[in-house]
Predict the 3D structure of the following.
Amino acid sequence: AAPANQDYDKEMLQAQVPLSEWENKTKMTPSFYEPVKVSELDYDSFQSRMTDEEWEGFQQYFPVLSENAAFHYTSFDDREELNQNREPITEGEYVLFQRYTSEEVTNLSNFVKAYIDSDIEEMMIDEIRVFDLDGDGIQELIMQWTPVGDIWVLHHEKGEFYGWKIMYRGFEALQTNGVYIGSGGASSNRWMRMQFDSGIWLEEILFEEDWGEYYVNGEPVDEDIFLQQVAIYETEEYVIGYKPKRQENKMTKKYPPS
């Protein structure tokens, strides 16, 4: 859902990120679009579609995907709500930041096994994006998984890997300026961006609409002011998503090649 301005809604609240130009122009069989197990991922199929910068960023996460390297992990359930001074909120204060600290260490095999042990079918990759979320020069790997619809974001820094997980509704319409939308319901949306520093993910809430009430940087405003401020961050440019392809021999490739 979105503000009352219908023309603006069509631009701001896209449910899907755009596919690459290559995917839009190429006629592909339905099997190409099927989600793929991480063990069957055709890495080379991404190289021909990604930019050189994206491909370089993607490769740094191959140890996690194909070699089961450990990563520090956090999720939406671990969030700590903070005020404008980045301190824990007190009663009556507005949440302007959400902090996620990567305290657990796991690997992909353990993570997938946890879903299977919970009687959820094996996780499969539905889409991949490679993008520098916070402008620190390090590209993150953003993966959408099925069947649960989780979004995983991986970050690589100083030889360590860090992972953050959130439901897809909390990370929609990612723009090239790093702003994305988190939806809490039909008429509840937040415009946010993420920072990463020394093992901590810090999510900043820029704007919020909540059932006819509008906020900018935590302050209540009229709808027209809200729309004007949101429009400043609306680039109409969204981060490209790439659909996975299954390897024909269904064998896991190890990277970097020997």
About this structure: Confidence is low (pLDDT under 50) at residues 1-17, 21-31, 251-258.
